[in-house]
Amino acid sequence: MRPYGDFESFVLETIEAFSRLARAQAGDRHQRRDAVQDVYLNMYRRWDQLIAGHGSLTSYGRTAVKRAVIDQFRRNKRMVTVPVHELPETESGIGIPEAAYEMIKEGIDELVAILPERQREVITLCVLQDLSPAVVAQRLQIKEESVKRYALKSRRQQPESPSTSTARRPTT
User: Fold this and answer.
1) Torsions phi, psi of 83, nearest 5?
2) At a CB cut-off of 8 Å and minimum separation 6, what does 111 contact?
3) Minimal CA–CA distance to 18: which of 74, 76, 60?
4) Fewest C-beta in 10 Å: which of 27, 98, 127, 161?
5) Rounded-to-integer distance, Cα 88 and Cα 14, Å
6) Structure pTM?
7) What is the mean pLDDT of each run of 10 residues along the chain (172 residues)?
8) Could you tell me if 149 and 140 are in contact, meaning their C-beta atoms sit under 8 angstroms apart?
9) Kindly report the CA angle at 95 between 90 and 96, in degrees rounded to 5?
10) Where are the alpha helices (DSSP H) in the chain?
11) In Å, what is the CA distance from 62 to each residue of 7, 56, 131, 141?
């Protein structure tokens, strides 16, 4: 009979030793806790197999903690940290830089209000909520081509801006 009959008693008796070992190996408090928790989780899943084995559960746990710390180090080594000041400017789902997109959204409410209901729904979902035509089609239960057609039709119905009206005016 093993001294650890149930998993809880094993954890209570070994948590201090495993934490000290992880602290010596990892150094970081969060990595130490994660390593010990990962080991306990894996041991819990295999508890019946482990207590049926002939080895020491404590030595198995110590080895598992060491390996978990090494695995975390390897995982963290592969991660590339990027300082915040070097992040590229984000773009909306339709390819407009985020700053310009926010300015466009401010004046769009007035223009959307004069559209028919279905076109208003499409424009609200595509432009204001930045969803793709495929997602909008699925939400409204219509074809994707219909979403594109409604968007194009609503664009044609909008009043012309001064820059576009002079370009389209016939010359005499």
Assistant:
1) -60, 150
2) 158, 159
3) 60
4) 161
5) 47
6) 0.42
7) 71 89 78 86 89 84 89 70 60 62 69 82 81 89 90 74 47 48
8) no
9) 70
10) 7-26, 29-45, 47-52, 57-78, 98-113, 117-123, 133-140, 144-157, 162-168
11) 16, 10, 50, 57
Token digits of residue 166: 């002079």
118's CB contacts (< 8 A; 6+ apart) are: 140, 150
End-to-end, the C-alpha distance of the chain in Å comes to 105
DSSP state letters, 71-103: HHHHHHHH-----GGGPPPPB-TTS-BHHHHHH
Distance CA 12, CA 14 (A): 6
What pLDDT does 143 receive?
92
With contact defined as beta carbons under 8 Å apart, do 69 and 35 qualify?
Answer: yes
Distances (CA, A) of 78 to 71, 73, 172: 11, 9, 67
Query: How many alpha carbons fall within 13 Å on the CB side of residue 120?
Result: 9
Q: Hey, what are 69's tokens?
A: 């710390």
Contact 94, 64 (CB under 8 A): no
